[in-house]
Amino acid sequence: MREYLLTLCVTAAVTYLLTGPVRKFAILAGAMPEIRARDVHREPTPRLGGIAMFGGLCAGLLVAAHLPNLQHVFELSNEPRALLSGAGLIWLLGVLDDKWGVDALVKLGGQMIAAGVMVLQGLTILWIPVPGVGTVSLTPMQGTLLTVALVVITINAVNFVDGLDGLASGMVCIAAAAFFLYAYRMWFGHGLEAAAPATLFAAILMGMCLGFLPHNMHPARIFMGDSGSMLIGLVLAAGAISVTGQVDPDALKLWAGSERAAVHTMVPVYIPLLLPLTVIAVPVADLLLAVVRRTWKGQSPFAADRGHLHHRLLEIGHSHSRAVLIMYFWSALIAFGAVAYSVNSASVWILLLVVALSAVGLVLLLMPRFTPRAPRWAERFVPPRYRRRAVPAAVTGAVAAAEAEERPEPVPAGLHGATAIGDRSRFSQRGKIGSNH
Questions:
Q1: Which residue of 21, 127, 229, 272 has the fewest C-beta atoms within 10 A of its own C-beta?
Q2: pLDDT(324) > 70
Q3: Mean pLDDT throughout 393-399?
Q4: What is the pLDDT of residues 4-19, one digit of tens each?
Q5: What does the alpha-carbon distance between residue 410 and residue 13 come to, in Å, rounded to a whole number?
Q6: pLDDT value at position 335?
Q7: Range of lowest pLDDT (59-63, 232-236, 294-298)
C-alpha cells in the first residue's frame, strides 16, 4: 500500500507542478478557443491541460518501475507498456484537437487505433465470467472487438461529461478511488497477482486527477481539453479491461471453493466492471442520453449541444459549484455502493444505506434554491454563504459608507445644459440657490 501511495503522490505532484507552465505555453500557443454557444464559462480559458496529466502518468509509471514491490508488475506483465503506448497516441490526438481541431470521425478512428495498439501488446479481454455458467472464453477477434468497444465507450463518456469546471477530473478521481479499492482487495486480499496492474493504473489515475483539480476548480484557470479527457478515459478503461478480462477465474476458485462459486462470489461488480457501468455510471448515462437525443432530432451523435446532465442542473437553478457537487455525489454513491456490495452482497444495511443516500440526493437535486448552513464549529472551513453568523453592524455600516462615497450625486430635476455637465462645486452651488427660491 505504501508504494501505491508513493506512486499516487509523485503523479499528483508532477501533474500539479507541470500545469502552471503548461498554462503559459497554451496561452502563447494560442490554444484558447473562442467561447461557443454551448459553453458555460464566459472568458477564454487555455486548454492543453492534458500535457501536464500525461507528464504525471509517465512520472508515475517511471517511479513504480523502480519500487521493489511493484517491479514485478513490469517484469511479469506487458500491460504498463501497452497502457503507455495507447495513452501516448490518444494524448497526441487530443493535443492536435485542442490546438487546431480534429473532425469527430477522425477522433473516433484515433481512439480505435489506440485501443488496437493496446490489444496488440496484450492488454485485452480474454474471458468473461458469467453467473451460473462459469468462464466463457473469447476468440481473439471477439476479445479485440469487445476491448476496442470498451475503450471507445469509456473515452467518449468521460469526454462528454467534461462540461463544467472540475467535473470530469473529479468524477474520474472518484471512480478511480472506488476502482482502486476493488482491485487492491483482489490483489492483496485474495493474492491474485493479475490484479496488480489494474491497482497500479487506478493509483496513477487518482494522482493525475488530484494534481490537476486545484487548477481546474471553479473558476478554472485551465481546461484539460480533449488531450486530458480522452487520456483519463483510456486509463480508466485499461484498468477495467485488466481486472475484468485478465484475472483467471481458475485462480479465484482457490479461495471460493469452485469456479462457479468464484464467479457467483465476484459477480456483484464483476460483470458491471466489464463496461464499467458502476464506476462511471453517470458519464455513460449522459453519453447514451446524448446519442439518443441527437439521433432523435436528426443530428449527428457527435454534434455538440447544451442537453447534458450538468447543463440541465444549471437550467433548473443550481449554481456551478452545486451542480458539480451533485454529480460528484451520484458518482460516489454508485461507485462505492457497488464496491461495498461486492464485499458483502448479503448485507441488508448496505442496500438500506444506498437507498437512504439516494433519497437525500433526490431532495438536494429538487431544491436548487436551498442553501445549507454549516455548524458553528465548521464555519471557518466553508465559504461565507454557508455560515450562520451574521455580519456585525459596524462592518455593515462601514460597507454602506464606502458605497455612498463611490456613488455619484444625483442631478436635481430641472437643471440642464452647463449646470448638469459642469464641475461638481458649481453644480452644488446651483442646487443650493435653486432650493432657496
A1: 21
A2: yes
A3: 47
A4: 999 999 999 999 999 9
A5: 56
A6: 80
A7: 294-298
The Cα 342–Cα 71 span in angstroms is 29
Instruction: Write the secondary structure of 199-249 as one string of H (helix), E (strand) and C (coil).
Output: HHHHHHHHHHHHHHHHHHCCCCCCCCHHHHHHHHHHHHHHHHHHHHHCCCH
CA distance 316 to 384: 23
Nine-digit cell string for 87? 495513452
* Tens digits of residue pLDDT in 397-427: 544 454 444 444 444 444 444 444 344 444 3
d(CA 194, CA 191): 9
115: Cα within 13 Å, side-chain hemisphere: 28
SS (H, E, C) the chain: CHHHHHHHHHHHHHHHHHHHHHHHHHHHHCCCCCCCCCCCCCCCCCCCCHHHHHHHHHHHHHHHHCCCCCHHHHHHCCHHHHHHHHHHHHHHHHHHHHHCCCCHHHHHHHHHHHHHHHHHCCCCCCEEEECCCEEEECCHHHHHHHHHHHHHHHHHHHHHHCCCCCHHHHHHHHHHHHHHHHHHHHHHHHCCHHHHHHHHHHHHHHHHHHHHHHHHCCCCCCCCHHHHHHHHHHHHHHHHHHHHHCCCHHHHHHHHCCHHHHHHHHHHHHCHHHCCCCCCHHHHHHHHHHHHHHHHCCCCCCCCCCCCHHHHHHHCCCCHHHHHHHHHHHHHHHHHHHHHHHHCCCCHHHHHHHHHHHHHHHHHHCCCCCCCCCCHHHHHHCCHHHCCCCCCHHHHHHHHHHHHHHCCCCCCCCCCCHHHHCCHHHHHHHHHHHHHC
What pLDDT digit, counting tens, does each position of 330-341 carry? 888 888 887 777
The values of phi and psi at residue 425, to 5°, are -70, -45
Position 304 scores a pLDDT of 63
